[in-house]
Every structure is written in structure tokens, then in C-alpha cells.
Amino acid sequence: MTDTLLFKRAVRVVVDTIEIKDLAMTFRVKKTLKPEPNTAELTVRNLNPDHRSHLEQLKVASVLIEAGYEGGTSTLFLGDLRTAISTTEGPDIVTKLSSGDGEKAVKKARVKTTMKKGTATPQKVLQAVAKSLGVGEGNLVQALGQLGGIANHFSEGVVMSGSAFREMNAICKSLNLDWSIQNGKLQILSRGKTLDGQAIKLTKDTGLIGSPTVDNDGVLTAVMLLAPDVFPGRKLVLESQRLKGQYRIESCEYSGDTHGQEWYSKLEAKRY
Asked: At what angle do helices 164-174 and 122-132 cross, to 10 degrees?
């Protein structure tokens, strides 16, 4: 099954208005549950001159990477273009693009709000800061609904002015929440909890490669065939010869090469 899938891999990239599908490409995408932006590095060989020129002149543009297999791809990464640089390597012209997820919005986002004593509930404070970030709301509504039983940390009122990123870090830390931006949208989880939905079952038959390991800090590392629906925050049910159990995915590193062997997801996860 592994060899068959490797020959049926598929990639689609859209940068600004330019769609790229049938050229030699490599990519490396890193996603985590941390607030710092997820990143993508993409290399494309032999773009036509007009497309190269267009990409190199862009100041603001979105970068979409879809990956998977023939018959079905899904979004692996959606973010903001940082740079596009072309160089010559032998007979090829190689264009390298780097991108950050929600990076431009978060860098510029500012919050300025005042809530008087008795009005600053955890829900109102989190909602105000989250909306000021300038990214999609993601699962914000669900996260707000889970704050009903949390004691009010803001009984004396709240004054916020400055970086929305910094305030979001402080608010989530005080409410015992993990927050990140995934494909341009907020993802907020109670500390140590997973996203709602069906768990991912990882076995040799579903793409597991080699033997998973656990380090001294209890962090599981596993490698599997690339699967875009495997991402940080999801629950993982592992069944391998040496290790079994439920985990929360903390980070994913996806690497792909349309004309090589690389087509993998490297996961780090903690016991759930």
C-alpha cells in the first residue's frame, strides 16, 4: 500500500492568483500548538518567467498548499508570503518561497479596550482580545462556551492597550488555555485537551513508518505517510508493536517531494 500511495501523490499550490500543479516541488511545513506562527518553505523548479517575476514583486499575498493523493487533496497550509527568491541551479531555475501562518495580521494587531468592575467576565475578555487579532475565529465560540465554570479572574475590571498577541498570551495563560493559529484561524484548547471529533488511529496499516519512540519527558515521536488531516490538537490512538495508547498531537512536520521519496509527516505527541 505504501509504494502505491507514493506514486499517486498530489500537490496543488496557489500563491496570490498563480496556481502551480505539475512542476517539480518540495515543501516543508511545521505546525505546533504554540502561539508563534506555523511556517512553510516551498521550492518550485522552472516556473515560467512571468510567474517568477510576479511572485518576486509581491508585497502581500496568501500561500495555499494542498497535498494528498490522486482523487483527494486537502489544505496542508494557508499563510502569508514572506519572500520569493529565484536562483539558478544547473539547468534549472529554482524559486524558493517562505510563509508564516497568520503572521502579518498578528504582527500588526493591537487591542484597546476597557471593561469596568463587574463586567469583565473571562468570556468577554477572551472574545475581545481574540477578535482583535485579525484572523479567522476558528473554534472561538466553542472555547467561550467551555469557560462557564472558570472563576472570574477579572473581578476588578480590565484595561488592555497594546499588542494583541501579547495580551492573548497573558489571557490564555491565566485561563489555562492553549492557543495557536492554524491555517489562518484561531484554535483554542483547554490545557492538555484535544479537539472535538474522531481520533486518528495510527497503525502500520494506516501509514505508520518504523517504530515510534518516547523520550525522557514523555514526548512521543512517530513518522507516518503524509496525511493533511493529521495536525496539532487532534487525538491520536497509537497501536504499534512496542507502544500503545492515546495521545494529543503537539506538533507536525510535513515534508514532501513530488519527484523524490519524501512524503512524510513527523509527529510529536503527549499522553492524553
From this structure: 150
- Spatial separation of the C-alpha atoms in residues 41 and 167, rounded to whole Å: 29
Q: What is the CA radius of gyration of the chain?
A: 21
Task: Measure the CA–CA gap between 168 and 172, rounded to whole angstroms.
Answer: 6
Average pLDDT, integer, range 222-237: 94
The answer on 111 and 173 residing in a single domain is yes
**Are the beta carbons of 199 and 229 closer than 8 angstroms?**
no
Q: 27-66, pLDDT tens digit by residue?
A: 999 999 999 999 999 999 999 999 999 999 998 999 999 9
CATH at residue 267: 2.30.300.10
What's the grid cell of residue 247? Answer: 495521545
Categorize the per-residue pLDDT at 9 as very low, low, confident or very high, splitting at 50, 70 and 90.
confident
- Give me the percent of the chain exceeding a pLDDT of 90: 79
For the chain, give percent helix, strand, coil, nearest 5: 20, 50, 35
Residue 255 near residue 30 (C-beta atoms within 8 A): no
Cell 494528498 sits on residue: 68
In 92-243, the DSSP E strands lie at 92-100, 110-115, 158-163, 177-182, 185-190, 200-202, 208-214, 219-225, 235-239
Question: 257 is in which domain, residue-wise?
Answer: 2-101+196-271
Give strand pairing partners of 235.
248
DSSP for 63-122, please give it. Answer: EEEEEEETTEEEEEEEEEEEEEEEEEETTEEEEEEEEETTHHHHHH-EEEEEE-TTT--H
For residue range 175-226, what is the model confidence (pLDDT) as tens digits? 999 999 999 999 999 999 999 999 999 999 999 999 999 999 999 999 999 9
Whether 29 is in a domain gets the answer yes
